[in-house]
Amino acid sequence: MKDMQEIVNAVSGLRDEEVKLYLMRILAQIKRLKEQSERLEEPLDEQIAGPVAGLLGYYTMLMKPREKRVIWDPSPDCTYVHLVGGDSFGGSMRQALRGLGWTDSHKLVTLREN
Fold first, then answer.
1. How many CB atoms are closer than 10 A to CB 87?
2. What is the DSSP letter of 34?
3. 33 vs 36: CA distance, rounded Å
4. What is the pLDDT of residue 72?
5. DSSP state of 42
6. Which of 60, 67, 84, 114 is the most exposed place for a label (fewest CB within 10 A)?
7. For position 100, what pLDDT does the model report?
8. Which secondary-structure segment (H or E) carries 24?
9. How far apart are CA 81 and CA 7, in angstroms?
10. Interatomic CA distance for residues 112 and 114, integer angstroms
11. How confident is the model at residue 71 (pLDDT cuts 50, 70, 90)?
């Protein structure tokens, strides 16, 4: 929680132009990371795979045209909503739902650790 407060303090002191500049730089680095991760022959270490997957997900979401961004879009067949804490558990739960073939009837919401 202390780490998140430090981040909030650092960001709240930035002007809008600075925020946009930092975001552009961060997205450029994430793009490079995405390109490199696609060329890897071996999977990433589990300790960094979750955060990397989260960053790549944000990158993909932000790079979509604004009208195609979706925050909540369960299918009409959705009958269950699972709330999980943390990216690591969220990734595991997502894999389990895919493995069981339940992705249409089960929606997953991951609550970030911070």
1. 19
2. H
3. 5
4. 63
5. S
6. 67
7. 92
8. helix 16-39
9. 30
10. 5
11. low
Q: How many residues does the chain have?
A: 114
- CB 57: neighbour CB atoms within 10 A? 13
- The DSSP annotation for 48-89 comes to HHHHHHHHHHHHHHHHS-GGG--S----TT--EEEEEESHHH
CB of 106 within 8 A of CB of 80? yes
CA distance 51 to 55: 6
Q: Which two tokens stand for residue 54?
A: 């989260």
Tokens standing for residue 107: 């929606």
DSSP classification of residue 13: T
The pair of structure tokens assigned to 36 is 């490199």
